[in-house]
Amino acid sequence: MLVPKGLARVFAVARVAIVLALLPHALDWRSPFLASIRFWAFVGLTAIPLGIVIAEIRALRRAASRGDHALSSASLALAAVGVSCVLGFEAQFWWARYQVLRADPALLERLGRHIVVGYRDIDELHALLERRAIAGVFLTAGNVRGRDVAAIRREIAAMQEVRRRQGLPALLIATDQEGGIVSRLSPPLAHMPPLAEIAARHPAGAERRTAVRDYAAAQARELADLGVNVNLAPVVDLDHGIINPGDRFTRISARAISADPEIVTEVAETYCAQLSGNGVRCTLKHFPGLGRVVADTHLQTADLALPPSELASSDWLPFRALMRHADVIVMLGHARLTALDRNRPVSFSRPVVRGLLRTDWGYGGVLMTDDFSMGAVTRSREGIGGASVEALNAGVDLILVSYDPDQFYLVMHALMRAVRAGALQEDALKQSDRRLAEAWPAGAR
Predict the structure, then answer these.
(1) Percentage of the chain lying above the pLDDT 70 cut
(2) How far apart are alpha carbons 235 and 283 in whole angstroms?
(3) Could you tell me which of 298, 386, 373 has the C-alpha nearest to residue 31?
(4) pLDDT at 445
């Protein structure tokens, strides 16, 4: 059946529009933003362009004018580029995964002690555990949904049994259980209000400390009973009241304890002490403080464009006070501290990590990055692989890869290549190994 010329041109324009809409996703294939729909995204990003390629080959045979020929040619070229990108990136991923899973066990163990991963497939996680390729596991809602405490406890115990058999320190079993809107394990654990609500309800100092102590003790007991030994809380960013409608995920104003650094310090110190007493380490986040950052680093780069002197008298007060405690972890955010480094997020910035924290402040504790699956890292100039190398060279101890577990293979592959090229600094690794060994001795459970 012949299609009217005008209608055929409309269809041709529509095909170009479809390909143009799909092309950004094809160019960013294997992005963590597609992680939850990766199978269907792969089907769509290959099947639709391939269908358009076939349609355009047919259209070129019957093109009635130069305009029709140009439209079909453009659509055909763009569709071919899209399919090639998806298949190329997919092949690169599976090649990196293949090389990681068949790498030298000693090298995997040496590098893996610096990586904490999330998981969707428990069998794949156990494959990494058997290869000693990770230091810890991140639990989130998808790992516990529809399951009771006993089942989760058994699963964690099985992971730790692998480590005991290997003669390695216990796995770090981490989660985000801040209370309020960030409560990854509720249910099955009890849903608790944010620390800000506890602080606001009890304005008097002694009463507030008691309330926070009771709150933290209850939360810590639940976490420890489950097998969690690292909680990615508390948030010690100050609440500067900044609300950005485009901020879909960070939402610091809804998570921060207070605008007052003294209250934040007191509440966080009380909270961390209770967690520590129950065998759960707390994590101070997110240095250098996201309370003044407008953009959402889950999606894009963001800047903290204030002089260190101003931050030192406000946002950094809780961090500096609490970093005196040996059993806390400090999480590095992905904002750029532009006064010290205009090009890289704090999480892999040598001027900030090695210069400010390790040298100027003399901090010898454990530094963990925020999730490297976030856009501020994956869309950076260095990419997730290059950022991982720079992070460890800068003095970071643990790289978190939680939202998209597939990114682990890209991180590990990049670190392996850096070792072979002599680009991963041996001295930085040895210092980090020492910090981790002091924090989690081989016999500790």
Answers:
(1) 98
(2) 8
(3) 373
(4) 47
Closest to 444 (Cα-Cα) out of 329, 331, 327, 330: 327
Residue 146, amino acid: G
CA distances from 121 to 55, 117, 342, 395 (A): 38, 12, 38, 31
Q: Burial-class residue 354 by CB neighbours within 10 Å (0-12, 13-18, 19+).
A: middle
pLDDT, averaged across the chain: 95
pLDDT for res 64 = 66
Coil vs helix vs strand at 230:
strand
Catalytic site positions: 298, 370
**Distance between CA 358 and CA 335 in Å, rounded?**
18
Q: What is the pTM of this model?
A: 0.94
Distances (CA, A) of 42 to 25, 32, 118: 10, 13, 22
**Looking at residues 13-22, what average pLDDT do you find?**
92
Q: What is the pLDDT of residue 1?
A: 46
Q: In sequence order, what E strands does 238-328 have?
A: 283-287, 303-304
Question: What's the token pair of residue 327?
Answer: 């059993």
- Ranges of H-type helices in 62-193: 66-101, 105-112, 122-130, 141-144, 149-166
Tell me the C-alpha distance between 309 and 313, whole Å: 7
Instruction: Classify the phi-psi angles of 90: left when phi > 0, otherwise alpha if psi is within -120 to 50, otherwise beta.
Output: alpha
